[in-house]
Amino acid sequence: MSQSKPAQTNKPATVLFASLIGTTIEFFDFYIYATAAVLVFPKLFFPAADPAAATLQSLATFAIAFFARPIGSAVFGHFGDRVGRKATLVAALLTMGLSTVVIGLLPTYATIGTWAPALLALCRFGQGLGLGGEWGGAVLLATENAPPGKRAWYGMFPQLGAPIGFFLSGGIFLLLTEVQTDAEFFAYGWRIPFLASALLVIVGLYVRLKIHETPDFQKVLEKNERVKVPVVTVFRDHGRMLVLGTLIALATFVLFYLMTVFALSWGTTALHFSRKDFLIQQLFAVLFFGLTIPIAAVWADRHGRARTLIWISAAIAVFGLALAPLFGSGSTVQVTVFLSLGLGLMGLTYGPLGTILSELFPAEVRYTGASLTFNLAGILGASLAPYIATWLATNYGLQYVGYYLSGAAVISLIALLLARPRMKQAA
């Protein structure tokens, strides 16, 4: 009995679906908040005297989750490295799912005044806490079950949850726009995506409860290699990889939240696109996000994960210089090309990212280390990206938003070059 390894009973399809469904749900929850932060919350949860100020305040609540995510990484990472991947993934999913459903039940500013944005911020913190523990566990569930030569391919399945979750979230808001009047949408329709999340969470829990521990974690248990406080070990013994991993993921976060939250906000205000038209353009562009993730994974397994991400980071830096001419044109065709190129590059960088970050750390602290790098990058690259980009575009022009993106890509490129020897050892 002591020689049995429950992780070996997992079928590949079960593992990959369990890693995919969880991140799909998590990112669906996250993106419906991002969309509502632009379209709904400025009108319903903040004083309406100054629309621009209300939008900035709403984007500030959006940023809260990114500061909660490293806390979630430390908390859930501790149990993921001490207790196991499975139980921790279930707890993370419940934390974010419940936070999302409660947002759909919150009274608005007109009903309870300043308590409304305060409660919204609290729920947003809960979303970030859950996502901080979800992503790392899902990536490890996939990569630690991967056969030789397939790590990036397996590791891209939880990454696919991002475009699928975004597509579902954008699709449901687009559907509500089609079937409801503005009055109906702002009265109750916006709540539907948040409440519907409960059904997705039930599906995710069912699948997650059917899986077993990963072979890598089983080996940690057998060799008695668990550390007492994983987060302390990560900072003490793997600090350099923590910093480099955070910077490696920087460009990914900046790119994505410029292409989604900032683009939606700027496109429906300064460029005067209707909510419906811009959501359609974004949903079309998300197809490129989803399609390029597996392409990048194949490249990474064949040609090296570090080498692949180095070339993609360089391409993102060049793309930043084209941001203002394409997006600022206001042309439907050029804006669609801009969104498609940007989200296509996002898929290329996102595909191998989870595998790369997980390989920077040994198995006994991998849940904590990979989660912290990803979510600390979220603070640096995503939490304030829509806010910073809006401020730059308003005060200096869209070209400075492009410089902001190019600068982030150059930083990630340098970090990749410095971390490359460690990645070669892991390969």
Automatic annotation (TrEMBL):
The keyword Chloroplast does not apply. Keywords: Cell inner membrane, Cell membrane, Membrane, Transmembrane, Transmembrane helix, Transport. SUPFAM superfamilies: MFS general substrate transporter. This is Inner membrane metabolite transport protein YhjE. GO terms for molecular function: transmembrane transporter activity. The chain crosses the membrane at residues 12-34, 54-77, 89-112, 118-141, 153-176, 188-209, 242-266, 278-300, 309-327, 333-353, 365-389, 401-419. Residues 15-424 form the Major facilitator superfamily (MFS) profile domain. GO terms for cellular component: plasma membrane. It is a multi-pass membrane protein. The keyword Heme does not apply. It comes from the Bacteria. The gene is yhjE_1. InterPro entries: MFS (IPR011701), MFS_dom (IPR020846), MFS_sugar_transport-like (IPR005828), MFS_trans_sf (IPR036259), MHS_symport (IPR004736). It holds the Pfam family MFS_1. It is found in: Cell inner membrane.
